[in-house]
């Protein structure tokens, strides 16, 4: 039985909830594996018309679990699985999203967040780069707007996330905003949904086919670097890294 992914269903919509609040839903090897397993179940279930990916606690995901990170190829596989799932995947965010969590967000077909959510690509601040998550992020965002956030690690708000292309919509009541979207998906023919999603994700999957191996290697190299060791140690010790001026 899964201990890190909550599962509920209502009117053919399966909700998968990241439920590792003690680590702020960080992407550990175990969480990635359990989420991949739950998504595989959804792909095989003809009664599932859409998947909602959400969270418990105040953080959607804090990014990679620095104490138990998933192998880069496992994260690549999870992101591709979301993109390739024949049913639409809808992100529901009511908290903070950091680093690898933004990869999950970008892999989803539709993403909605409350107006209190916050976002940041924090990889550069711990000595690595947003390598693997670039596979879904870069094809779905505005490159000029994205550059600032990739390069600075600054925190930004939901309105900026919409402008970037990371979010579809933001609202004070995210469930109210998602209700007509989910009802719309329930009215669609499953085969038509799958083929329409295939049209929409073709460019993203081309990026996976072309760049996944190189970005996986880059991620592994950077995480093994001296800068990464210093950055992660500083993060865990809640201090500035040695390079901060």
Automatic annotation (TrEMBL):
Q: Which CDD domains match?
A: crotonase-like (cd06558)
InterPro entries reported for this sequence: ClpP/crotonase-like_dom_sf (IPR029045), Enoyl-CoA_hydra/iso (IPR001753), Enoyl-CoA_hydra_C (IPR014748), Enoyl-CoA_Hydratase/Isomerase (IPR051683)
Gene3D superfamilies per record: 2-enoyl-CoA Hydratase, Chain A, domain 1, Lyase 2-enoyl-coa Hydratase, Chain A, domain 2
The family database entries (SUPFAM superfamilies) matched by this protein are listed as: ClpP/crotonase (SSF52096)
The terms under GO molecular function for this entry are:
catalytic activity
Q: Which NCBIfam families would you find in this protein's record?
A: PRK07827.1
Mind telling me which PANTHER family this protein's record contains? ENOYL-COA HYDRATASE (PTHR42964), POLYKETIDE BIOSYNTHESIS ENOYL-COA HYDRATASE PKSH-RELATED (PTHR42964:SF1)
Q: Which family does it belong to?
A: Belongs to the enoyl-CoA hydratase/isomerase family.
| The protein, known as | Enoyl-CoA hydratase
Please name the source species: Streptomyces yokosukanensis
